[in-house]
Specification:
This protein is α/β, with parallel strands linked by helices. It contains three helices and five strands.
């Protein structure tokens, strides 16, 4: 019974780590400059108030933007989630500073 309580508690505590990106839009733009990233953001259909992640697998970087295209800082949970999603690519992504 204690194992079930501990498992349930762990699941509840870890839920925010995985739920923060449920509505996020992910765009892949390999080896893009700032102008190309802006074109990708303008062309994307984006849900209001959902973050946008622009993923560059060539440079192994991720840039985070709000729904208006303003840059944001990617959190640790964002990076953990994206690296888990794209694990099959064998690329470790880092936040673009």
């Amino acid at each position: 019974m204690n194992f079930i309580k501990a498992s349930l508690s762990a699941a509840i505590l870890m839920a925010p780590l995985f739920s923060s990106n449920l509505l996020a839009t992910e765009l892949v733009c390999n080896d893009c400059n700032a102008k190309q990233i802006q074109q990708q953001l303008d062309a994307a259909t984006i849900q209001p108030s959902a973050p946008i992640f622009v993923i560059d697998f060539v440079q192994a970087k991720v840039s985070k933007f709000d729904s208006q295209g303003q840059p944001l800082t990617a959190s640790l949970s964002d990076m953990l989630h994206l690296n888990q999603v794209y694990d099959y690519r064998r690329t470790y992504l880092v936040a673009n500073q």
